[in-house]
User: What shape does this take?
Amino acid sequence: MVGLEFAILALLNVILVGLVLALAIWIRKVVEINMAQLDANLAQALKSTVTELTEGGLAGFEPINPVQAAIAQWIGSMATQNASTITASIVDRAADGTYSKASDEGPR
Assistant: This one.
């Protein structure tokens, strides 16, 4: 009696493993098909976007605002003027590792 029950359980396990393998194969095929379709759709979208940008030009952008351009130029000129006026001072360390008074020797 116990041998028959084990045989039935073994048969059910074999059937279950077969069904799981069949399901895995089916899922793999579905994923492959969908990935190929996604790849084709993505390639088409990229192609149409590149075509639209190259053939249509970049006419969709607004021209540069003159006030913003003037502010950007002013900031750039201030940065170049102040770049040479920054003075560096060397701060020596004491024997215990803390910073001591700044030396007025200038850069070394």
Remarks:
- The first strand starts at residue 91 and ends at 93.
- The beta strands are 91-93, 99-102.
